[in-house]
């Protein structure tokens, strides 16, 4: 005689029988009476491809640039539009050098918390400007503005970085972590010396110096842009041709070497390119410590892939959108155009601390 056993109640999520078997049926009936929301087509709800994400960010960037260039023009169009166009050119240079440079630096160092300023570029730039004012006076720093000074500052910072790399990587105990440690120590030494010299300046000279120590998109001269675009174009071609090698460097030294990548050579080349980008950006628009960090962090989240063929353009577009939209809002909504770089540095510093607290380590 066979006996069929039928459970009186279905097991709940905790493994115990439900106290009220009809509860689920009543909830289902109540949910059926609720108004149904219209469903989006499957192609809309599907996950966006990396290429589609780039097109969306590119469209938003184009809209932000168009708004900044064409809206709220008061007075002469022939005077205002070229000035804004020069600022957009400076934004393009800053977005490329800071965004792409930070992503490449994160790739070769294997750490997404560190920034290229860890090598000491910002500190070296501050020391150079402080020495000029301290030795020659405040009037000299304004009278010597020009393309030769820009080239000299960039060449000096790139030479400093190249000698640092060759010294640290050619030795017996040369390593990337040693380079970062030496960069931190040198940056602290430069900052201490700059602070000491700044305390010896007169208030007038210190005011003239302070103008040079903050990011200044509006102070970029149009005769600087052709050289800046030429340098960025050459670097962009070199980095783009090595984008697959950058993907290999993400695997680490041993894995990259195993698949045929000369890790030491690629590391040195990429660090020199990063040094050139950050040095040129610092000499052109001033120090922007956390701007590249913000752009790179957003690019990792929005690119949808690890491939540098998408991450690098995403970082550039996000950087350009941030500057164009931020400058438009600060200038025409909040009427505080000069505070954009200050706000970027403040938000970037908060994001930097937040990521450190979440990860618990560098």
Roughly how many Å is the radius of gyration? Answer: 27 Å
The shape is: globular
CATH topology: ABC transporter involved in vitamin B12 uptake, BtuC
The CATH class name reads: Mainly Alpha
Decide which structural class fits the backbone: mainly alpha
Helical amount = over 70%
Output mean pLDDT.
79
The CATH level-2 architecture is identified as Orthogonal Bundle
Number of distinct beta strands? 0
Q: Kindly give the count of domains.
A: 1
Question: Ranges with pLDDT <50 over ≥5 residues?
Answer: 1-19, 34-46
- The span between the termini is 71 Å
CATH superfamily annotation: ABC transporter involved in vitamin B12 uptake, BtuC
**Could you describe the largest sheet, including whether it forms a barrel?**
none
Count the DSSP helices: 16
What portion of the residues fall into strands of 2 or more residues? under 5%
Order of helices and strands: HHHHHHHHHHHHHHHH
